[in-house]
Amino acid sequence: KQEVTQIPAALSVPEGENLVLNCSFTDSAIYNLQWFRQDPGKGLTSLLLIQSSQREQTSGRLNASLDKSSGRSTLYIAASQPGDSATYLCAVRQGKTSYDKVIFGPGTSLSVIP
Amino acid sequence: DAGVIQSPRHEVTEMGQEVTLRCKPISGHDYLFWYRQTMMRGLELLIYFNNNVPIDDSGMPEDRFSAKMPNASFSTLKIQPSEPRDSAVYFCACRGGRETQYFGPGTRLLVL
Fold first, then answer.
1. How many Å apart are CA B107 and CA A104, to the nearest integer?
2. What distances in angstroms separate CA B7 from CA A89, B55, B102, one per listed residue?
């Protein structure tokens, strides 16, 4: 059974710092991995999606990497801003059939201090 | 596009009452998911539909929970009877041709 964990559970950094969020999964046979952002009281917003054949994806100040063999992904945020404060969740999709579910990690709560 | 619409946004009810949560997915998205989020258990998939047909309801906690999707633009999640441990935020999400799921704003349920 696939299990997804995220470390740390919470992180507080001063504005301007670069930071890394970690995601681990137990079954490396994944189809893709996504990083989501959740603001307090809101739904989830997709940030980046990495297919199993890819090593990384970039969007603006965000860079997500995937090492399938070791069961790890990282989300790198450059030059953090107070507006980046949110909870970040990673999610893995196990297979490529239409019926495969997405398993979410517990999230990392990020606070960027002005 | 207004995105995924959920109603109500907040619901407070007493134990034993019936609760109905509603979702309108993005037009053209043929997958619809119901999730529950709590501090203790995180985000859990309850059930999902493809083309209005329930595909996997293994996440539904017990028979008190039921979900329907009578057409492509509407789905309900019903809890009857409700219990305090059902208190959580319930999200509806949908997916179209791309991989990304689009989430609604959620319904915050409190059962007293």
1. 19
2. 24, 23, 16
Task: Kindly state whether A86 is in contact with chain B, defined as any CB-CB distance less than 8 angstroms.
Answer: no
Q: Phi, psi (5° rounding) for residue A48?
A: -145, 145
Torsion of CA B112, B17, B32, A32, to 10 degrees: 30
Give the residue from A82, A74, A92 showing the smallest Cα distance to A39.
Answer: A82
Distance of CA A78 to the CA centre of its chain: 14
- CB contact (8 A) between residue B45 and residue A44: no
Buried b (16+ CB within 10 A) or exposed e, B46-79: bbbbeeeeebbeebbeeeebebebeeeeebebeb
A98 touching B, CB under 8 A? Answer: yes
Alpha-carbon gap, residue A5 to B82, rounded angstroms? 30
Tens digit of pLDDT for each residue in B12-35? Answer: 999 999 999 999 999 999 999 999
Can you list the residues of chain B whose pLDDT is less than 70?
A: 1, 98
SS3 B43: strand
Rounded Cα distance, A107 and A86, in Å: 10
Write the Ramachandran bin of B106: left for phi over 0, alpha for psi from -120 to 50, otherwise beta: left
Interface test with A, best of B45, B55, B101, B109 (most A CBs within 10 A): B101
- Paired tokens of B79: 């809890």
